[in-house]
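Tutorial handout. Part one gives the primary structure; part two gives the three-dimensional structure as tokens.
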Amino acid sequence: MVKYNNQNPPLIPLSQRGKQGDLFHCLLHFFVFFLLLPSAFRLQPLYAQVLTGLDVLEKENFEILKGKKTGLLTNHSSVNRDGKNAVDAIFASGKVDLKIIFSPEHGFRGTEEGGKIIENSTDPATGLPIYSLYGKNKRPDAEILKSLDVLLFDIQDIGARFYTYLTSMGWAMEEAAKAGIEFIVLDRPNPVTGGILEGPVLEDDVKYFTAYFPVPVRHGFTPGEMALFHKDNLNLNLNLSVIKMEGWKRDMWFDQTGIVWTNPSPNIRSVNAEMLYPGIGCFEATNVSVGRGTDSPFMWFGAPWMNAKKIAKKLSKSGAGGVEFYYEERIPSKDMYAGRICKGVGMKITDRKNLRAFDVFVHAAYFLHKYNGEDFKIKPEEIRKMTGTDDFYKMLVDGAKPAEILEKFRENRKIFEEKRKEYLLY
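Part two.
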């Protein structure tokens, strides 16, 4: 008889294994299946429990704000892990002397279309005044700031330089420095990961509300990291703090964080739209529709005059990875070409790790220029704001091929890629 020990488990005849054999084989099959799973599924939880800066602030019982007259620059996108808005969570705590709300483009509730002037108002839920930073002024009023001890920033960005929420943060930081008050960023994820950069770095002589930070089009920073970069870049005399997230990693996409999704603005309705926005958004400097007034803006581009079937085929063979291109007609209900049939190119993301939306834009613009000629119109000053450089427009009209344009921008980013490492918090 063979005795049981760690080295010699009992031998069970096949005829007598019964339930023990069934269990053994089930465990064996599970073990083999687990080993064969792609590493991305085994090592990266599909639904993480990331705590935002707001969640951490709550967890720490708002200690950093006690005894301080507080202003909050925020909007609807700032929610805690239970889906409650930052204003409601902070106000309901009874632990913070919250005096005023500042709101960015699209308004406090995030319902206003881009570019629409927004007036000051009052929050009906709390009775707090809402001071618009997308009205007559885009910077906080100096007298209001002097009545505060600290200004908080908590807004969900989407990771593209020309999206204006972080410009509002930067301008608020500058005014807080002048007023001599503290500035605190409640950090949130970069929803399209914090490790991929795209497009050229903004040139020194390009400065607009949609073109403010000297970073690439897709910058890879969280709001807190951008704040640290901005303070250093302008040498601001500012008492700046960042309340870091817990559990966030640089390779995470927003839908892997467990954070409640809210549309950051009316036409950004999914993580896929966020992924394509750093490239397709550049078409807003042209006479090409990006799908405003359709069900899925920034997942399609088109125009009544577009040679879209040919362009879709050319894009499919262009080497622009991670996306499938197909011909699709749409009729926008508003904005550009409202009520008109537009021939366009639809996009389906197939591999988001390899998708480079700015590469897609450069290839698409090249084919539009080549196959639609004078029908395709680019506004030189507007495309300068979007791309951050004069080089794109000049190279395109001079006949440069996409590979040449993109290589120039890769070289352009090299210094920044090293510099940014100083500001990474995760």
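Part three, for discussion. Confidence is low (pLDDT under 50) at residues 1-21, 23-45. The longest strand covers residues 323-330.
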